[in-house]
Structure formats: structure tokens, C-alpha cells
From TrEMBL:
It holds the Pfam family Thioredoxin_4. It comes from Alkanindiges hydrocarboniclasticus. Residues 50-185 form the Thioredoxin-like fold domain. PANTHER family: THIOL:DISULFIDE INTERCHANGE PROTEIN DSBA, THIOL:DISULFIDE INTERCHANGE PROTEIN DSBL. This is Thioredoxin-like fold domain-containing protein. It comes from the Bacteria.
Amino acid sequence: MNLFGQFKKGSVAVFVALALNSVALESYAEAIDTENVYATVNVSSDQKLVRYFFSYTCPYCRKYDSSMSRWGKTLPKPMRFIRTPVITDNENSVTGAYGYYTVLQAMPTKLDAYQDTVYTNIQDRGLSADDLNTYLISAIQIGIPRDLFIRTWKLDSTRNLVNNASILGSKYNVRRTPTIGVGGKYSFDPEILNSGSLDLYTFSNVMVSKYIQERGSF
């Protein structure tokens, strides 16, 4: 079931308009009844971040990964978009998180290509999400040297990032993927949006604008 709207070229303009016009923002927020579709959290370390919680086995995460990354580049400074893998009791989530943070550290400019390749290998080609080799193969396919990938995988910093991702998922009370976290204050997921009138990008714009207006300054 398609729970999301399509990525709109005009979403940047919508963000700017809402960010600059508090009256328009309040009217829009009232029209879509935002309080019924977001949760309030308290993650003080994330005041300048928008997080995209994802899983490599989630088809919705795959469908919107690259477009949400592009949307993230439109955020006003000092806000910054960052992906965060969801850690669950399933071993594949831990292995996938290790792969993600390995590439993030080893060759961050390859991250978008890596995401697309991993999703394809797991969801289309049937490679195991539990297997380190799935992530190694994906990295090699986009030009990351095998030795660099393995060496970075074993770093203490990689383990620390995976552990932190697990903590963040708990703090944001992630129950479905994808989940969006805004400024360490709000979280929401597209499943609870009304697919007939809302889309993920417009609602993300609304929530970021709401957060910035409430905060005032950084």
C-alpha cells in the first residue's frame, strides 16, 4: 500500500514559504491536524538535526531514501539531515548498521550510491540482510576497496556509532520505518499520515518549520 505522496519539485518552495509565513504555517498545521500525527520526544543532542530512521528490509525506506536525502539538502542552516539505521532484536539490523557506518566513515561521498545498491541487493536480488558479505559486495560494487571496508568495519568508532543508533531509536520511540525525527523534539512516521491529503515531504517541511519557529534561534 502506497502511504506516501510523490516527491514534488516544488517542495523546497513550500518549505521556504511555510518557514517565512507563520500565519500560513499555523493555518496549514490546523488543516492537517498535526497533533494527531507526531510524538514529542526529548533528545537534547539532536537540536540541529533531522533524522531519517531506516531499515534495509523496508520497501518504503528504500522508495524514499534518495528523495528524502535530496530534501534534506534544502534544510536551512544550521539544520542538517542524517540517516540513522534502526537497531532491533533482528541480527540483520545490527549487521546493516555496521555496513552503513562503515561506508559513512570510509567514503561518505559514496553513501547515496551504497544505499541504493544495498537496497537492490537485499530486496531485488535476495541477498541476506544478516550477512556481512552482502554489505561488502555492495561496497565493492560502487568502488570501495575491500580492505578499506573491512578495516573500517572493525574500528571502535564503527561499533560506537552502531551502539548510539540503538540508543537513538529508543529515545525517538521508533516503532515503524521510516520514522522522521526533528530537532530532538518531534518524531513521526508516514504510516499515520492520511495518504489522501498529506505527503511525507510537505509534512516534514511543516514540522521543521514548526520546530524552527518555536525555537527562535540556535
